[in-house]
Amino acid sequence: MSLAFQASQALPRGTDYLRILPELVLSIFGMIIMVLDPVVDQRRNQKALGTLALIGSLAAIASTLWQARAPGLAFWNMVQVDTFSVFFHFLITTITAVVILTSYEYMEVQQIRVGEYYALILFGAVGMCLMSSAVELVLIFIALEISSISTYILAGFRRRAAISSEASIKYFLLGSFATAFFLYGVALMFGATGSTSIPTIEQHLRSGSIPVLAYVAIALMFVGLGFKVAAAPFHVWTPDVYEGAPAPIVGFMSTAPKAAVFAVLLRIMFQIHAPGRLGLIWVAAALSMTLGNIGALVQQNVKRLLAYSSIAHAGYLLVAFAALPQNGIPSAMFYTASYAAMNIGAFAVVSHFGGAGERYVTLEDYSGLGRRSPVLAAALTLFLLSLIGIPITAGFFAKFYVFSAALQANLVGLVIIGVINSAVAAYYYLRVIVVVYMHDPRDESVLPAVPLELGAALAITALTTIYLGLLPGRVLDYASRSAGDLLH
Predict the structure, then answer these.
(1) How far is CA 252 from the centre of its chain?
(2) pTM here?
(3) Angle value at C-alpha 64, between 397 and 345, nearest 5 degrees
């Protein structure tokens, strides 16, 4: 009888499945799309399967809100639902929905079969959501692989373009090396502490002297995760992959996987109280801000410019990781949400303007955009001003909170580097705005009207950017409560 009782205790209960409900919803809709793709007419499945994927992402958002009512541990303490994981679940599923909206027109113009495209977006979101709630390093590794494999394939979806295939292969090869670093770090952490559970590792490292293996393990895991967020010096893949990948997927890759990885980094760096983290983060943040902005200064391709911009923003965000936990965690979470809104919006404009084969992606192509399409120009200007950090946009408060958290931790040198880099970044963002409004258009033709779905995506991202710039308090308060859950 005791064996039967133990077996029944080991079986997951119904609440366990509730605590992975968004992942289940996304997986089910992804599988349905894969089943329907071969039997749906290719001319009609562009929007039919896209609509199904959109419904799946909206259902995942709803299930995340429902999931928030049942916080706790699940599946033998490997998954934890709290305000911290709910924040990132909501962010990732919302990003997924907006990216699907931006993909409707793009897939039709590029004439790409959409079934596996939308399914891979949903499957990638499954891994990203699971990363944000996993509190066990092996499960984090599995979720990371689910996310990575999907994005490797999505990066090469412009099959007729050699540059897209090159992007996919380069991303896959370098990503595999990064994954190996992370896995080796997990193995060394197990050797140092005897566990891969984050709470157990925390207790072990607090209980006595920290073994040397733990320092090496943290460094190796940081290398693996630093690649995923495009932090220097692990950023070399970013410009080529962003240039070759489909524009909506670049918007997806630059936000959702980063949000998931930053959630993991917050757990490892703050919940474990990772030894030696300050030196690693200080160097990575300074290098990312500096190399990213210097690289962006000389770019003529808008996608490559935004790629180097994303490296710089990874550096700004890492500044928060060097701060004290009670200030660093909320500011990092707020920055992640703000960056997601403005970057997806920018790539939504790029995806519409690029045309068939993404022919129009250089700065010269954007000449006179303000005259040819005032709506697109205004939207792009808003997102670029937010990336600079101009007041009344989300980017202003994002940088303000990050730098304030660093100053409260006496990281004056890092803040000075960040402020100087912000001034440098203003040059290349404003250069795009100058080209849009002050240069004569190369082509006097009027651009196609913005489709309803893309208009909805631009409206969502623009309103979010303005909302977070005017009324950041509610999101920051929620992030502060999330920090309390993470630390206690």
Answers:
(1) 7
(2) 0.94
(3) 40
Distance CA(105)–CA(83), nearest Å, equals 35
Per residue in 201-239, pLDDT tens?
988 888 877 888 988 999 999 999 999 999 988 999 999
Partnered with residue 119 across adjacent β-strands are none
What would the pLDDT profile of 90-99 be if each residue is shown by its tens digit? 999 999 999 9
12 cis-preceded (ω within 30 degrees of 0): no
pLDDT digit string, tens, across residues 377-436: 999 999 999 999 999 999 999 999 999 999 999 999 999 999 999 999 999 999 999 999
Q: What confidence tens digit (pLDDT) does each residue in 164-174 have? A: 899 999 999 99
CB atoms within 10 A of CB 215: 17
Taking the mean position of all CA atoms in its chain, how far away is CA 269?
18
Domain segments of the chain as ranges: 14-487
